[in-house]
Amino acid sequence: MEIEKITFPVRQNETGSLTFLEAQRDVPFDIKRIYYIYDVASGARRGAHAHKALRQVYICIHGSCKVLLDNGKEREIVELNNPWEGLEFKGLIWREMFDFSPGAVLLVLASEYYDESDYIRDYQEFLSYLEGKV
Ligand code: T46
To answer: CA–CA separation, 12 vs 129, rounded Å?
Structure first.
């Protein structure tokens, strides 16, 4: 699967923990946008789309959630449950987020401003788009 796990620096002492990340250093692109998903209803699924060009890193900064990844050939489920760990998408990947723990917060670092035309929100269209790219 075209993903990479990134481990961010942690500074920890008896008073608590701090994690930081710097664009082009800990995250391999310039960050133009940050957004976060929270207050997710019990049992809800989000996502069900792919991005054509957007570069992203997902970080579950509180609680946990699972991400179903599908590159058209294989499927994999990754659990995110560490505030110091990022999931980088490195290819065209269909994704669905589910199993959010109560209070979970999924933070996303993105390389571009919001652009709906970058989304593929239909699975058949995703497969066709993949074929066109091969
Ligand atoms: C992703 C996952 C993890 C905006 O207006 N601006 C924005 O920057 C974003 C991200 C969304 N929106 C609008 C578009 C929809 O009307 O907010 C609404 C909810 O977005 P969406 O249904 O795409 O939410 P998710 O949770 O399915 O997906 C979002 C991101 O869109 C996506 O890039 O990777 O979070």
So the answer is: 45
Distance CA 76, CA 2 (A): 11
At residue 123, φ and ψ (nearest 5 deg) are -65, -40
Structure-token pair, residue 124: 């058949």
Using a cut of 0.85, tell me whether the model's pTM lies above it. Answer: yes
Nearest to 71 by CA among 56, 57, 55, 92: 92
- On whether the CB atoms of residues 104 and 63 are closer than 8 A, the answer is yes
Question: What does each of the 134 residues of the chain score in pLDDT, given as a tens digit?
Answer: 999 999 999 999 999 999 999 999 999 999 999 999 999 999 999 999 999 999 999 999 999 999 999 999 999 999 999 999 999 999 999 999 999 999 999 999 999 999 999 999 999 999 999 999 75
Rounded to a whole number of angstroms, the CA Rg of the chain reads 15
Ligand 1 cavity residues, CB under 6 Å: 33, 35, 37, 46-47, 56, 97, 108, 114
User: Nearest C-alpha to atom 2 of ligand 1 is from which residue?
Assistant: 47
